[in-house]
Specification:
Elements (H helix, E strand, L loop, with lengths): L1 H18 L51 E9 L5 E8 L9 E7 L16 E2 L10 E8 L7 E8 L9 E4 L4 E2 L2 E4 L19 E3 L9 E3 L2
Parallel strand pairs: 1-9
Antiparallel strand pairs: 1-2, 2-5, 3-4, 3-6, 6-7, 8-9, 10-11
């Protein structure tokens, strides 16, 4: 009887042990080794220069024609025997009447002096009225004295409303002609035979004072 009780107790113990939930296994701690800190060297980013636009290429533009200005078209300068000059100047300007016309022109030396017969005159040649129906037109002014040593002058025209600024003509007084001008000087007259000197052999020297130095003779 005792043995049966013992066996029954053992059997119950085995059954209880089989039905009991398994004990929770304790997690095994795994040591974690920290990775060594890596020192990152700072990266220097080179400064990027702001792109500079190349300077704009200059655009070749022609200056607009200045309409309405007084233009000198042609100049004829004539020197008299006494050295004074007469200037015949052709001017073009869109005269519309008394409110707008070419009112004068100047003969100017290289140093900027406007040559005038009368110092109080506004121009070398004052134009007293419009030339509406006469374009271009030519007007003259005499008794102009050009200072010694001046070999070149500029002729300019003036507009009543726009002033100077039109086409000018540069006159080279050492030349017979050029662009926009003509120059005339007095001719040296030939020596009359009645005033020509006699040579020792009775012949007459004609143009003994010729510029080319040639002695021309005439046999009477």
């Amino acid at each position: 009887m005792v043995i049966r009780i013992v066996l029954t107790a053992l059997l119950l113990g085995i059954v209880v042990a089989a039905c009991a939930p398994p004990a929770a296994s304790q997690p095994t701690a795994v040591p974690v080794t920290a990775a060594p800190a890596t020192t990152v060297a700072p990266t220097t980013i080179p400064a990027t220069a702001t792109p500079t636009r190349p300077p704009a290429e200059p655009t070749a533009t022609s200056a607009p024609a200045q309409e309405g200005m007084a233009d000198v078209m042609f100049v004829k300068a004539v020197q008299a025997k006494d050295g004074v000059w007469t200037f015949n100047v052709t001017v073009q300007h869109p005269d519309t009447g008394w409110e707008d016309y070419a009112d004068g022109w100047d003969v100017v030396t290289p140093d900027g002096q406007a040559l005038k017969v009368n110092p109080d005159d506004p121009f070398t040649r004052l134009l007293l009225h419009p030339h509406v129906n006469e374009q271009p037109f030519t007007r003259s002014q005499g008794r102009i004295r050009i200072p010694d040593g001046v070999m070149q002058v500029t002729v300019r025209a003036h507009s009543l409303t726009r002033g100077f600024g039109g086409r000018e003509v540069v006159v080279d007084l050492t030349k017979d002609s050029g662009e926009g001008f003509e120059v005339q000087r007095p001719q040296s007259p030939a020596t009359p035979q009645s005033q020509a000197p006699f040579l020792p052999d009775g012949r007459i020297a004609v143009n003994a004072g010729a510029e080319d130095g040639t002695l021309r003779v005439w046999q009477p």
